[in-house]
Each structure stands twice: as structure tokens, then as C-alpha cells.
Design a protein that fits this description.
The chain has 385 residues and is an alpha+beta fold. It has 13 helices and ten strands. Strands 1, 2, 3, 4, 5, 6, 7, 8, 9 and 10 form a ten-stranded mixed sheet that branches. Strand 3 and strand 4 form a beta hairpin. The chain is globular, with a radius of gyration of 23 Å. Bound molecules: zinc ion.
Length: 385
């Protein structure tokens, strides 16, 4: 780790290690971390007193985010070397991009804040908020949060996503084959950017007033769909490539559409109900490289970043908490939360035996880590797993 302080009094590594304990133990705040300062754990972990909440916040504002990203790459390399990160059955590693708003406030702003005007009961008010784009790698049974990039004032999500992707492609050139996102990423600049870097793009195709959508609908209308079973869902799928009605993209694209149905029994009255969902994706993936079923599976795995990425990060790692309202500090805390999330997931998925995983949750593991802080304080032995 490196920082730009002229004469650091407390080693940055100790401060970052303290923040790591905060995320692994899901303590949720720097104050909670500081309250554990009398725990003997810190003397063992840091060989000294832990830094104060204020010091951790201040130092994280001057730590270079790239230093933290280096640690993230080391975690990824170890997972790869240990063959912990295998592609799904279709053989394609997928990188999912998505934007996320971390917090909003009317009271404080910083150089990195975005602004919007909001109608409130007391009239129109300027609200300040932060958004970032995250890239998550989706493997067979494990996801890894690779990197994040803040959306700067005045720019759109796709612009920030391309900046993020540019760096990720340089640092993880062979980590994935396909990059995908929601309908926002059905953007010709983005598709051409991904193609120019030797990867394939996939995005949700929405029913908009675009020629590609109209062309696909008219061609699909005359074709019999192919039925594909996807878990409990039965999908009627249409799949055609060679569309040239999106001329801004440097090569013809493929459209895959599905109407998916599943019968469920309602808990309330025991009656059967049929659920139906409509999906469409546009992609540069050729049929020879990805079957219809593969595109369907890749498209649906986009939700992994919501369910396994942001959900884990925000609800359990407290990544949305503003540990210090400073653009660099917020990015550093987010990157640290992502690394800790990856480490916890890897430990849980790969180090614990299945029988033990059946008995304990990841949350339980974090609570045990937190408990070490408090047990040491009370002079009690550490809890067994
Ligand atoms: Zn701000």
C-alpha cells in the first residue's frame, strides 16, 4: 500500500488491515471498530494499538486506490492458480457491469458528488449522491468482484464503465470472454469498444423505437420457437444472427428472445399460478461459440451481480455506509469491501467442507470473526467454528 502523506505516523498497512477486519467482521462502522480497541486481538493482529476511527478515515482518503486494486489482483491470481474459479458448463467466463448508487444526502457534498434536483415536501432541493460501476466475474459456482469505478460529475454510466473496462482488460486480459450489462449497455459506442478489445458484448434489448427491435420482431413472428428448459422455467426461444439494422456497431449482431413460463402454487390460497417473463438480448457472440441456451444462461446470470454482488456488499459488508465523505476514501473503502467479500466467499465456498456449509452461513462466519474481537476483550477463548 502507498499513500501520499509526507510523514506517516501509523503504517498504512496497519490501517488497511484494521479496515479489513471491519469488513470481514461486518462491523458496519469505524466507530464500532474503534470500540473494540481494547481487545487483545489488535495486539496480536497489528502488534500494536489499533488506529482511531478518525485516522482510518483520514488515511483511506490518501491511500492510492491502485494499491488496493493490486491486493484485489493478488486474491484473484490465487483463486485462478488454485483452480477455484472455473467457467460455467457453456465455457464462457462472463464479466457483468452494473451501476450502483451508494448513498444520497442533502447536507454534504464533495468533489466527487453527483447532483440532482428532487421535489420534497419543502420544495425543490439539490440532492448529492455517489454512483459507481462495478465489474463482477461470474464463474460456474462463484462470483468475484474485480474492480469498481466512480461515475464522475457530468458523465454517464457507460463512460465510467468503459474507463473501468479499459483498466480491467489491461490487468485481467484473459479473465473473461463476454462483457454484459443491462439495457443501458445496448449502446453502439460500448459494443464497438468491447469488440475492439477482442471480447464479445451482450446487453438486454428493450422494446424501444429502434430498427433492430422491429426487424427482430418481424422475423421472429414467422418462426417456430425452440423450447429450452431452464431450471423450473420453460422458455420458448427465438435466435437469429446477422442483423445489420444496428449499423453503428462495427459488425452484424445477434438477437435472442425468450418467453419463459413457470407454474407456482400460491402460498396464500394454494392455487396454481403461471408466471411469465419476456426477455431479449443483443449480442456479438456467434452461434458457433454460444448456443441459444448459453446466451440464455449468460443473460440471466446478470442477476448474479445483484444477488451475489451488491446484495452481499451492501446488506452484509455495509459497503454503502459512508465511512468518510471523500471521493478517494469512498472508493478505497468500496474496493476493500469487495476484496473482503471475495475472500469470504472463497473461504466459504472452497475451504469449508459441504457438510459444514450446510450447517453455517457466511453471515455466521463473519459473526465469529467479530466475536473474536469481543471475546478477546472479555478474556474468553475464541469461539469454535
Ligand atoms: Zn460526495
Amino acid at each position: 500500500m502507498c499513500d501520499s502523506r509526507t510523514a506517516p505516523q501509523i503504517p498504512t498497512a496497519a490501517i488497511v488491515r484494521s479496515a479489513v477486519v471491519m469488513f470481514l467482521g461486518r462491523l458496519g462502522s469505524l466507530n464500532a471498530l474503534e470500540q473494540s480497541s481494547s481487545s487483545a486481538f489488535w495486539r496480536k493482529w497489528l502488534r500494536g494499538d489499533p488506529p482511531s476511527a478518525d485516522t482510518v478515515g483520514r488515511v483511506c482518503a490518501v491511500v492510492e486506490p491502485d494499491s488496493v486494486r493490486t491486493v484485489g489482483r493478488q486474491v484473484y491470481s490465487r483463486l485462478k492458480r488454485g483452480k477455484a474459479l472455473a467457467p460455467p458448463a457453456h465455457g464462457l467466463m462472463v464479466a457483468v457491469l452494473d451501476g450502483h448508487e451508494s448513498h444520497a444526502t442533502y447536507r454534504r457534498c464533495c468533489d466527487g458528488c453527483l447532483q440532482r434536483t428532487v421535489e420534497t415536501r419543502n420544495g425543490r432541493k439539490v440532492q448529492y449522491y455517489h454512483r459507481h460501476v462495478t465489474l463482477q466475474l461470474v464463474g460456474r459456482d462463484m462470483t468475484v468482484l474485480l474492480d469498481a469505478e466512480p461515475i464522475r460529475p457530468g458523465e454517464g454510466e457507460v463512460t465510467a464503465a468503459m474507463r473501468l473496462l479499459d483498466r480491467v482488460l489491461e490487468q485481467y486480459p484473459r479473465a473473461f470472454d463476454v462483457v454484459q450489462g443491462d439495457a443501458l449497455y445496448a449502446n453502439s459506442t460500448f459494443f464497438n469498444f468491447v469488440l475492439s478489445r477482442g471480447k464479445h458484448a451482450l446487453a438486454v434489448l428493450k422494446n424501444e423505437t429502434r430498427d433492430l427491435w422491429s426487424d427482430a420482431q418481424s422475423l421472429f413472428a414467422d418462426r417456430t420457437p425452440v423450447a429450452i428448459q431452464r431450471g423450473r422455467w420453460l422458455a420458448d426461444c427465438w435466435d437469429l444472427e446477422g442483423f445489420t439494422s444496428w449499423p453503428q456497431v462495427s459488425q452484424p449482431v445477434r438477437v435472442v428472445q425468450s418467453v419463459e413460463r413457470m407454474t407456482v402454487r400460491r402460498q396464500l390460497d394454494g392455487q396454481e399460478e403461471q408466471l411469465e417473463a419476456h426477455w431479449a438480448w443483443v449480442t456479438t457472440l456467434p452461434a458457433g461459440q454460444a448456443s441459444t441456451q448459453a446466451v440464455l444462461e449468460v443473460g440471466h446470470r446478470r442477476w448474479a451481480i445483484e444477488n451475489e454482488g451488491f446484495n452481499e456488499l451492501t446488506t452484509r459488508q455495509h459497503a454503502d455506509h459512508v465511512y468518510r465523505h471523500h471521493p478517494e476514501a469512498m472508493l478505497v473503502f468500496l474496493l476493500l469491501a469487495m476484496i473482503c467479500c471475495n475472500v469470504l466467499v472463497a473461504f466459504y465456498q472452497r475451504d469449508l467442507k459441504p457438510a459444514l456449509r450446510d450447517r453455517v452461513s457466511m453471515l455466521h462466519i463473519s459473526r465469529l470473526i467479530a466475536a473474536e474481537l469481543y471475546l478477546y476483550r472479555a478474556g474468553l477463548p475464541a469461539a469454535p467454528l
